[in-house]
TrEMBL record:
InterPro entries: AdhesinB (IPR006129), Bact_metal-bind_prot9 (IPR050492), Lipoprotein_PsaA-like (IPR006128), ZnuA-like (IPR006127). It is found in: Cell envelope. This is Metal ABC transporter substrate-binding protein. One of its GO terms (cellular component) is cell envelope. Belongs to the bacterial solute-binding protein 9 family. One of its GO terms (biological process) is cell adhesion.
Length: 330
């Protein structure tokens, strides 16, 4: 028995050392951490700063975050004004990590509200997601060239999955009647999605949730809903839904579902990964906005039924009239 304990004691430090030898990769948000997890295949230790379900726009770093960043070998950030708190956190942490902006190569959408500012939600377009994962693969390869073949292999599979997803989303969106392709959300996180897949995107808030809704924004959305007949609006998992729910109630339309924008969901959610998030969002949007088509079809069928009834009644009346004329003449 003592010999077994001795073996275990000898093995334990080795196991710990082996774990500690893994490079620490810190992503600012859950979406990017998921991408890094897929490509790294467990060869590095991937952690995130903003927890799942957190709002990166208004996140306030903790002392634990500073400690995490201090120990990082690589930091993956979105940039495009997404993590306004990150530079101060990095400076205060004293980290020596390499810092990689994973939107490098993305064509950003300029902010409508703010000059010299960009929309950070580029991952909503899967074509941009392909740029993200290539940048992450390159960053991991530079950090840990010993496992470059693994990163390249995993990246190749992931790239094919995203290319398939991009085509799938385009096909699904086509199921929505063209006049109903209007996506109304809590904050303006879906403009890349809308541009890529052909949906007009409207929101209460701008590209950041760190702002208050204006009366003019509410009036604008009410007009859009009333003029277009759009059947649903969509709340988001990281944004307070009350205002959008009230707009839906005021206009007698549905809340079509809860979308994921700035964070994936936990493992028990329908969106525990980047791919699952986009699939779930798309199926939710299509299901809610296509209901109008069903309603239109029902109305059309009712009109056809009424028309048929009128025809039958007309024939009966005409037949009765002819019968009476014949009888009188006889």
């Amino acid at each position: 028995m003592k010999a077994i304990y001795a073996i275990l004691l000898l093995a334990l430090p080795f196991s710990v050392d082996a774990q500690e030898e893994k490079k620490l990769v810190v992503a600012t948000a859950s979406i990017f951490a998921d991408m890094a997890e897929v490509i790294s295949g467990g060869q590095v230790n991937v952690q995130m700063i903003v927890p799942i379900g957190g709002d990166p726009h208004i996140y306030e770093p903790t002392p634990g975050d500073a400690q995490l960043v201090n120990g990082a070998d690589l930091i993956l950030r979105n940039g495009l004004t997404f993590e306004g708190w990150l530079n101060e956190l990095i400076e205060n942490s004293g980290t020596r990590a390499s810092i990689v902006t994973i939107t490098q190569g993305v064509q950003p959408i300029e902010s409508i509200q703010y000059k010299n500012s960009t929309d950070p939600h580029a991952w909503m377009d899967v074509a941009n997601g392909l740029i993200y994962i290539e940048n992450i693969k390159n960053a991991l390869t530079e950090l840990d060239p010993e496992h470059a073949d693994i990163y390249e292999f995993n990246y190749g599979i992931y790239r094919q999955q995203l290319e398939d997803l991009d085509r799938e989303i385009q096909q699904e969106i086509r199921r929505i009647p063209e006049k109903r392709r209007i996506l109304i959300t809590s904050h303006d996180a879906f403009r890349y999605y809308g541009k890529r897949y052909g949906i007009d995107v409207q929101a209460i808030l701008g590209t950041s949730t760190d702002a208050d809704a204006q009366t003019s924004d509410i009036v604008r959305l009410n007009k859009i809903i009333q003029s277009s007949g759009v059947p649903a609006v969509f709340i988001e998992t990281t944004v307070n839904p009350k205002l959008l729910q009230q707009i839906a109630t005021d206009n007698n339309i549905e809340v079509g579902g809860k979308l994921y924008s700035d964070s994936i969901g936990d493992k028990d959610s329908p969106a525990p990964t980047y791919i699952d998030m986009l699939k779930y969002n798309t199926s939710t949007i299509v299901a809610a906005l296509s209901k109008a088509d069903t309603a239109d079809t029902d109305t059309s069928e009712a009109e056809k039924s009424n028309y048929g009834l009128f025809v039958v009644l007309g024939v009966l009346l005409l037949g009765g009239f002819i019968f009476m004329v014949v009888k009188l003449n006889g």
